[in-house]
Every structure is written in structure tokens, then in C-alpha cells.
Amino acid sequence: MNLASSVGLSTKPSLPSLHSLLNSYIESRNRKQALLLFRQLLEYNVKPNDLTFSLLLKACTSSSSSSSSSALNSVNVKRDANQIHTHLLKSGVDRFMYVSTALLDLYMKLGCVRNAHRLFDDMPDRDVVSWNALICGFSRNGCDFEALKLFVQMCKEGFFPHQTTLVSLVPSCDLEAAEHLFEEIVEKSVVSWNTMIGAYGQNGFFDEAMLAFKRMQEENVPANLVTMVSLLSANADPESTHCHATKTGLVNDASVITSLICQYATRRNTESGKLLYKSLPQKNLVSLTALMSSYTEKGDLFQVMSCFAHLQQLEMKLDAVAMVCILHGMKDPMGFCLGLAFHAYGLKSGLSADSLVANGLISLYSRFDKIETAFSLLSEIHEKTLISWNSLISGCVQAGRPSDALEVFFQMKMSGHSPDAITISSLLSGCCQLGYLQFGERLHNYILRNNHEVEDFVGTALIDMYIKCGRIEHAERVFKSIEEPCLATWNSMISGYSLYGLEHEALACFSEMQNQGIKPDKITFLGVLAACTHGGLVQEGRKHFQIMREQFNMVPDLQHYACMVGLFGRAGLFEEALMFIRNMEMEPDFAVWATLLSACCIHQEVKLGEYVARKLFFLDSNNGGFFVLMSNLYAVKGMWDEVARVREMMRESGGDGCSGISVIEMTSLEDMNVNLSSSKSSLNANAWQPLLSLY
DNA sequence: ATAGGGTTAG
Questions:
Q1: Which of residues 430-459 of A touch strand B (CB under 7 A)?
Q2: Which range marks the domain in which residue A654 is found?
Q3: What is the pLDDT of residues A355-411, one digit of tens each?
Q4: Alpha-carbon gap, residue A429 to A362, rounded angstroms
Q5: Number of domains making up chain A
């Protein structure tokens, strides 16, 4: 390839002319051209100086590849940085501190922490700027402890920390230390305030973020667009922030608009999001992605697609993030077809090579039980991240193939990844499906031994696993070890007690939860009502149903109604049950009537039972469950002719009444094969072999 | 120097 023509040079260039060319590449963010020019300069035996390197490094740092969000992570840039490093040493320009510092900064931005550190160690002299680049780099790459250690070392060596260094250290500290650092800053600039607001927000201290913002206003430091963005990501109220941004003129900024769209989306307000997007003078992909994501959350596929049409009208192209967002919205069969079309778009545009998009595709295919496709997608990812593995593991579990999930988990371990909270909670939920207590216990041990935090998700999954595997006392122990259980954790425990017929424990748990200031949701009430039903606590059930509607303004779902019908029916209060069904705000479904029929069986109510069975037949004649119930009801009353008639109807309708499968825990591979080789489960004994000796 | 859209989980 002719390098000269590719960068438009035909004669030996002078250094100043090369520098001005490099400057133009920096402006157009063209890393590749800048490097080509540099290579050509070497071919022409022009000696680069410190400015040449400085410009070249700037071109690398500011480079933005066409679409991928992970531009700076690419292997290519890392390779280029290493080459520049070599030439830097060869030419002796590394004696210029500012050039070495620029390279150090690039290494840090690429995540090459070790290279950066070595470069720093090799530097003959350091100044505050190079120290800052090093400390800031460690902090940005999540090496918080290192960053703090270096900060101390820097102070020991007599350097006075600059405000920048202090700011960059804030994310490395826990919050209290950050506050101390912050108070150390005498002249607090907008940037310092923004950093503190951001730190509060990222740690979930939303009230503190708001307080810091108020203090900042009191001290007459004017907010800028970063303040708005940080506030919004600290869950600030979108309306009042919107108001503030409008008054200060900051609402004209695209990133503020994007953040507002997102924050309105958390309140399910897509209408304001749409208006904000429309107000943008320059449409851009990031804001549009935020808007699409708000529609995705709401399940409004039509609006997602019209956003996509809008994007095409503007002749914009999707990038990886936008693609992932769209794929995430494909949740029904129609969506799956569209998802396939977007897979094709990804293949044509090259986007599907991005591991982000590949992960999104894996979840898409698993959502529709296409596990084989998901498997092959994973195998094609070159740099498999933990998220890629997790996507497939959770995909298998969701598709009802927990043993495949375990197989993938084993492969993941082999490839050198350690499970995180998401891996573990997915696997635990897979254990529930298999009733595989032993493996669940191993995961629990793994969590304890590796000091994994038993946080919301893992804690809830553990409790669920123990409950579904018959060990309520273990579930209780886990529950009691959690200091501040979240709503889902409380819900698990309440419905667990209810499942075991421990209605008083369930109700005690419910009131304890409210004492702790946790607001119940619909799932909580499902557990509470089920507890009342199981325990025959009619009055308690009535009371809680009323509390749910009147005190918490919730509209009951069909499941809540079914629960109540069961409560009345089991107590023999058939008139109340029927009145209740008549007064429902929605059409009773199969489950509601089936609950009543089952109560008829208990109380041998043949006449009502026949009436209900007819209802059920018209609602869903393919669901044969009510045949069995009816047949049992007649049998209890000794009405054998009727039993025979029902059995005959059952045969005619094709229902065999025995499609259930029981799974019991297997303690050896032989057991497993015996128990499951003939069932629907895709359990693969070979996959389990290594697991048994895993820990 | 501080920041904007996204994926995996109960």
C-alpha cells in the first residue's frame, strides 16, 4: 500500500506541515490517518519531536470509531499505543515529562493499568500532572486501594495535591472519606460540587445528592449541564429538575435532554420524553436511544418501531447500544420476528460482531426458548465477557433448561471467569426448577467461602431455593442474616411461610416488614392472601383484601381474586364466593372458577360443582384439569355412573389427566439417569459429572 | 477533571 498517497503527501514533508496535518486529524477524530502519517514520516527519515508525539497521542485519545461504544477498548488502539511507546523510547523523547504523561493517560484510558504503572516507574522525573494522571487512572479503572496508596506516597514525596487529584480520588473512597476530601477543598468549583453530587448518586444517597445541590446554590456556584445530568442520575424529580434547567437555559443541551428523558421514563412518562426529544434542534442517536428505551420499558413496541423509522428517515445508523435496547424490547412472538430482522440488520452492518449486541441476541433467542441458537451465538463471541456467559446461563434457566445452565456454568469456570451475583442467582433459580438442594447448598457454601455479599438478589434467590427445596428453616436462617431485606426478599419469605402453611408467621412477617418502612406491592398481598387461604383465616383475608385496595390503592389482579374465592370456598362460604365473583372488576378467568370447583370438591357440593364445571368447559375446553376435579367430586358422593361419564368425556377430549412430572432430588449420577432419562428434562449426566467435584 | 443512551438476576 502506498502510504504517501493515502495521506496525500508526495514529497518529503517538513515537521511543521506534518504537525498541522496531525492537528486536522485530531479535529476529525481520525486515529488511523494520524498513525499512517506517523509511519510515513518514519519512512522519510524525518525525526519526530516531542510535539509530534504529543499530537499523535492526542489523536489516539480523542479517536472515536464509527459506531462502537467500546472504541477505546479495541485491540487495535492498544497495539498502536505500544508501538508509539517503542518509538518514544527509541527517539529519546520520553525525557519530556508531558509526553510520557500523555502516553500514561492513554494507557489508563485503554485499561492497560500495568503498562501505565511501569511507564510511571521508568520516568526519570515526575510532576503533579503525572502523579495526577497515575492516581486518576487507577481510580477510573476501579483500583481504588492503589489510588489511595499512591496518593499517600505522593504526599510523602512532598507534592502538594492539586484540586484535580482530590476530585479524582473521590470515587475511590467510601463516602465518608470522600466527604472529608471534599471539605478539604477550599475553593469549591462547579466540578468539585458535581463530583460530590455524582458520588452521592452513584452510592444511592439520593437525598444527600439533592442536599449538596442545594448547598451549592446557597454558595452561589452556578450549576452547569454536568450538574443537571448528575442530579438526574441521582434520581432527582424530573419535573423540578426540568424546571430548573429551563430557567437556567441548560435545557438546550442534548445530554441534559437525554437525562431528562431517562428520568421521566422511570416514572413511565414517555409523553414528556417524546416532547423533549422533539425539542432537540440537532437529533442525535443517544437521545433517541433513551426515548426508545423508555418505550421498551413500557412494552410499547409500536413506538419503538416508529423511533426506528424516524432514525432511518434521518439516515442515521444504529450503534451497539441502540441495537441492544431494541432487542431488549422484543418480548412477544411478533417481537421475536422483528428481532430476527434486527439480527439480520446486525449481520449486514457488522454490529452483531460487537459482544454487546451478541449478548443482547443471546437473551433474545433464549427468551423464545431457542437455546441452541443462543449456544452458537456465544461460541462465536471472541472476547466472552462475564455478561455473555450470564446471558446464556439465565437464558437456559428461563427457558426451563436448568441443567444446560449448569453445563454452561462449568464451561464458564473452565474459561477462567468467576461467577458474580447474577450468575449465582440465576443458578439458584435453576436449582429450584430441579429441586436440586445439594447443588443449591454448594452454591451457598461458595458464596460464604468467597465472601460474596448476600445482597438483595442473591439473598432472595437463596431463600427461594431453600423454600422450593423443602428447607424452610434454612430459608429463615438466611433471611435473619440479612440486615435490611428489600421488598422482594420480604415477599419471598412471606409466600414461603404461606406455602408451608405457616400463616401466622407469614402475617407476622408482613407486619414486621411494614414496621421496617417497606411498602408492600401486589406480590406481597398475593403471599398474605394465600397465607389466609391456607390457614382458613377468613376474617384476616377479608381485612387484607380491603387494606390492599383502600390503604394502598392497588387494583387486585385475577390471582388475588382467585385467592379470595379459594378463601371463601374452602370455608364453605359459597354464597359469598359467588357474590364476590359477581362483583369483580374484570371477567373471572379459568383459575378463579377452578379454585371454586376445587372448594366444591372439599365440601361435596355437586350442584354448584356442575355449574362451575360448565363455566370452565366453555372458558377452556383443552384444559382438562376440571374433568379430574369433577370425577373426584362424583366419586366422593359415590356417583359412579357420573364418574364413568366424565372419564369418557375426558378420553374424547384427548386429555389424559396424567401429564404431571415429579422431580425428586438425585444423590448420584445413577439415580439421575434412572429418574430423568425418560422425562422431558434435558438433564445431561455428563454435564453434572464435573460439577460434583467442583468445590 | 465532573457527565448523557444499553445488555445479565430475585
A1: 456-458
A2: 556-664
A3: 999 999 999 999 999 999 999 999 999 889 999 999 999 999 998 898 899 999 999
A4: 19
A5: 2
